[in-house]
Amino acid sequence: MATDRLLDGRLKIRHLVLVVTIADEGTLVRAAQALHITQPVVTRGLREVEDLLGVALFERLPRGVAPTEYGRPFIERARSVLAELRVAGEEVRLLQSGQLGTVTVGTHLAGSNLLLPRAIARLKAEHPRMTVVVREGTPDTLQQLLLAGDLDLTVGRLSSSVPVRLEQERLHQEPIRLVARAGHPVHDRSTALADLVSYPWIFPVAQTALRAELEAVFFHEGLPMPADRVECTSMLTLRNLLVSTDVIAALPMFIAVDDKELRILPTPLSSIRRSVGVTMPKDRAPSAAAAALLGHLRAEGARLAEFEREYAASAR
User: Fold this and answer.
1) Distance between CA atoms of residues 282 and 286, nearest Å
2) Which of the residues 14, 32, 71, 258 could staple to 57 if both were Cys, CB 3.0 to 4.6 A apart?
3) Which residues 6+ apart lie within 8 Å of 123 measured at CB?
């Protein structure tokens, strides 16, 4: 019954503060002074708590008060409640400023090598207590997770069409380039697409935009699809195959440009160029954590756009 009375609204936060202050100060007079209220208000507040509990919390002594056997556990619990409330208030304050919380972001190939890691690194340097969850998947899977509310945003290639509940923001352009390991025999020979068909290849899985675009490139060149190929979307598997075998793969340029074990082939794929950016729900305002990550993604996107322009100029 006492527990019900504590939860029916009659017990106030001020009662907990009052009880803890009395315990800390040792007298009702000093508790009143610490709380900037009168002693009768302290006395009345303590009586209210004791009436709710049905027990005395303090023993009245000649020179003050001391917790009773009932008061000691109640005071400790009251301290814990007040401490949790202080923590909760601080977390809310930090969340409002984007310093604490969790942001969940999906990614697939484009943007996963430089754009997203750099943005996360800057975000964590600024807000080390923030948690970032990165989930990898195919574009279709990530869209469904975004619509379901399991992702805050996705980073990657922008689609020519998205569900009406989603919106896209372009951050930079990223060409698709053919890539092979350093030391691959193709680097000493012609790199015309017709001369590369006989090598083993890694292709994206069917039903992806890049797969359709690559098939179109081969079709327009009048070439068959490479017979020796692996179809793969796992970046870890793909890179290991690239550096350990003679496969050729078509990848977003920034995946290979900083990798010392890979080299970009000069073979033109001018018809394939990616707009890389973020996809977000229209009907959901970003959380403070998501907004903070988005700000760093925009800044890193601008830097990569400038780098791509410089790289393209130097390659001419």
Assistant:
1) 9
2) 71
3) 130, 132, 292, 293, 296
Rounded distance between C-alpha atoms, residue 246 and residue 200, angstroms? 7
**200 in Cβ contact with 252 (< 8 Å):** no
Contact status, residue 164 vs residue 143, Cβ threshold 8 Å? no
Q: What is the DSSP string of 74-105?
A: HHHHHHHHHHHHHHHHHHHHHHHTTSSEEEEE
- pLDDT tens string, the chain, 316 residues long: the values are 455 777 788 889 999 999 999 999 999 999 999 999 999 999 999 999 999 999 999 999 988 999 999 999 999 999 989 988 888 887 788 777 766 788 999 987 776 778 899 999 999 998 888 899 999 887 888 888 888 888 999 998 888 778 888 999 999 887 888 999 998 988 888 788 888 998 999 988 877 777 888 888 888 888 998 889 898 877 788 889 999 999 999 887 777 777 889 898 988 776 566 788 999 998 888 888 889 999 999 999 998 888 777 766 665 5
DSSP state, 237? H
Count of CB atoms situated within 10 Å of the CB of 291: 14
Amino acid at 57: L
pTM, full prediction: 0.63
- The phi, psi pair for 275, rounded to 5°, reads -90, 120
Angstrom distance (rounded) from CA 144 to CA 264: 33
List, in sequence order, the alpha helices (H) in the chain: 2-7, 13-25, 28-35, 39-53, 71-96, 115-126, 139-148, 193-196, 209-220, 235-244, 253-257, 288-315
State the Cα–Cα distance between residues 209 and 229, nearest whole angstrom.
18
